[in-house]
Amino acid sequence: MASVLVVCTGNICRSPVAEGFLRAALQDRLGDLAPVVASAGTKGWEGSAADPSSVEAAAERGLDISRHRAREIDRAEALAADLVLAMAREHVDALRPLSPRTTFTLKELVRLLDALPVPGEGDPESILSARILEADQLRRSGFEGDPYDEDVADPLGMPLDLFRAMAWELDEWCGRLAVGLFGKHRAKTGAEVG
């Protein structure tokens, strides 16, 4: 099964929220055929709970991340992931040597996919692989997107309203990513196909 790894710094603010929203958006679109979504940090605060403000901001948008436990990214996991989504350019810079063609910031990948034709039909794993390849080719051709708006701001230590803004932003961008990867229509689930 395909896998997506969402990465930030400590794995307590941005990436757990993005993991939850992306998992929900993909499961809504693909059911039991959705890629596995996980998160980690480049300097993961191993075993720490998600920041209480992230938990609250996510809950206000219908997402429960209260059981999340932070962890540091592992080299093998980054190499094995079909897609590595970074919350900021600094995370891409840290991870790109491991998986240069499959590592993007969330916003960068969404903008690349928005510029590509609608995805074709097929099984989700093949579609994901093809879409990532197309996005990487477009990126390598010089597509700039919006280099001044690549990062999701880290709200650590900030007031709750900034966590709410981060959760809103991630909810929107993760929804757009699911559409960009797999199209606007809900695919048949494994039970519906068989």
How would you describe the overall organization of this protein?
By secondary structure, the chain is α/β, with parallel strands linked by helices. It has a single domain, classed as Response regulator (Rossmann fold), CATH 3.40.50. It has 8 helices and 4 strands. The chain has helices at 14-30, 52-60, 75-80, 89-95, 106-114, 124-140, 160-182, 190-193, and strands at 3-8, 36-41, 83-86, 103-105. The chain has a 4-stranded parallel β-sheet. α4 links the parallel β3 (83-86) and β4 (103-105). The longest helix has 23 residues, at 160-182. It starts with a strand and ends with a helix. The mean pLDDT is 92.
Labels describing this entry:
194 residues, Rossmann fold
Briefly, what is this?
The protein is built from 8 helices and 4 strands. By secondary structure, it is of the alpha/beta class.
Please outline the helices and strands.
Layout (H helix, E strand, L loop, with lengths): L2 E6 L5 H17 L5 E6 L10 H9 L14 H6 L2 E4 L2 H7 L7 E3 H9 L9 H17 L19 H23 L7 H4 L1
CATH superfamily: Response regulator
Overall shape: it is globular
| Low-pLDDT regions | none
Largest sheet: 4 strands, parallel
So how many helices?
Answer: 8
Strand content: 5-15%
CATH architecture label = 3-Layer(aba) Sandwich
Residues in helices, as a percent range = 40-55%
